[in-house]
């Protein structure tokens, strides 16, 4: 279990331990990390790689949307870093244990990637003028492009998929401000999916033997269409290079 808050992470990890089979009691490891700090991500990756020679599934799920433009300590716009770059770095640094397990990387994207095209020349810069929703849409497009390029580069050892959970009644909207926050205030979230329903496709992608497509976009336990800017091989290659440069790794 990886989370930003030690307390929340412990609550979920304790719950998982309680749900485990009584004859097979395993401790759920707890790690905390702030994706707005790349050094935190590097430290997490070093700990995980030291403790696990094999990693079967890495779920890149952390994400957020920010109504006002902010910059991380690493100098990147926060949505770009938290929703894409940190997961990219973590995945790259876990290449060895993921390959050793012939593992899977499952990334949580969103139907919101449909909102705005990612420019042909991919950059880490947010939209101008800044819009939290457009910055989020771009970052969620990056999740799909990252998945595509990762699948191409690490095949056949590692498979990579992404998915949209649909509109889910989590803490997301209440925190995001903007239109999502408004939907929450208006009570629309009552018709949203539960967190368990939202997570269903993630669990399926992590465990199902077939039905998904390596490098592909998914929803509701099936492959799903994504916008052209999220399935463009050139943008996917450019994003990989840009991200490698940003975190100081060779492409
Ligand atoms: N809810 C929806 O309708 C919806 C729709 C499509 C896609 N998604 C995607 O689903 C994923 C999960 O979101 P959610 O709906 O479950 O929202 P959530 O309840 O706000 O959960 C987001 C998670 O990301 C973590 N996180 C945020 N900023 C972080 C940071 N700087 N460092 C480390 N962790 C950080 C949060 O940790 P803290 O609790 O400590 O903040 C929390 O665990 C996100 O990628 C989101 O983009 C959600």
Short description:
The chain has 251 residues and is α/β, with parallel strands linked by helices.
Tally of domains: 2
What value does the Rg take, in angstroms?
17 Å
Straight-line N-to-C gap: 28 Å
CATH topology name of the largest domain: Rossmann fold
Would you report the number of β strands?
7
Unique ligands: NADP nicotinamide-adenine-dinucleotide phosphate
Portion of residues in beta strands equals 5-15%
List SSEs in N-to-C order.
EHEHEHHEHEHHHEEH
For CATH, the homologous superfamily of the largest domain is named as: NAD(P)-binding Rossmann-like Domain
The oligomerization state is single chain
Strand order of the main beta sheet, please? 3-4-5-6-7
Low-confidence stretches: none
Shape: globular
Describe the structure.
The chain has nine helices and seven strands. It has 251 residues and is of the alpha/beta class. The chain has two domains: 32 residues, no CATH class; 209 residues, Rossmann fold, CATH 3.40.50. The strands form two sheets. A five-stranded mixed β-sheet has the order 3-4-5-6-7, with helices on both faces. A two-stranded parallel ribbon has the order 1-2. Strand 1, helix 1 and strand 2 form a beta-alpha-beta unit. Helix 2 packs parallel to helix 3. The longest helix has 23 residues. The model has no long low-confidence stretch (mean pLDDT 94). The site of NADP nicotinamide-adenine-dinucleotide phosphate has 23 residues, from helix 6.
List keywords for this structure.
Rossmann fold; five-stranded mixed β-sheet; two-stranded parallel sheet; binds NADP nicotinamide-adenine-dinucleotide phosphate; 251 residues; 7 strands; globular; 9 helices; alpha/beta
């Amino acid at each position: 279990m990886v989370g930003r808050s030690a307390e929340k992470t412990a609550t979920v990890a304790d719950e998982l331990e309680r749900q485990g089979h009584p004859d097979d009691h395993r401790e759920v490891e707890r790690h905390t990390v702030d994706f707005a700090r790349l050094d935190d991500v590097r430290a997490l990756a070093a700990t995980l790689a030291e403790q696990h020679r094999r990693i079967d599934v890495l779920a890149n799920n952390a994400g957020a949307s920010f109504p006002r433009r902010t910059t991380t300590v690493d100098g990147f716009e926060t949505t770009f870093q938290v929703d894409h770059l940190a997961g990219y770095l973590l995945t790259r640094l876990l290449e060895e244990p993921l390959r050793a397990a012939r593992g899977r990387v499952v990334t949580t994207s969103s139907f919101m990637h449909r909102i705005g095209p990612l420019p042909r020349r991919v950059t880490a810069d947010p939209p101008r003028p800044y819009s939290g929703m457009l910055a989020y849409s771009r970052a969620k497009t990056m999740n799909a492009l990252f998945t595509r390029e990762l699948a191409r580069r690490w095949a056949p050892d590692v498979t990579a998929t992404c998915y949209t959970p649909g509109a889910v009644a989590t803490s997301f909207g209440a925190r995001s401000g903007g239109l999502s926050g408004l939907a929450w205030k208006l009570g629309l979230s009552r018709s949203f999916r539960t967190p368990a329903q939202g997570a269903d496709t993630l669990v399926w992608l992590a465990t199902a033997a077939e039905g998904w497509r390596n490098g592909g976009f998914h929803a509701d336990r099936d492959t799903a269409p994504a916008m052209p800017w999220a399935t463009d091989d050139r943008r996917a290659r450019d994003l990989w290079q840009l991200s490698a440069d940003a975190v100081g790794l060779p492409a």
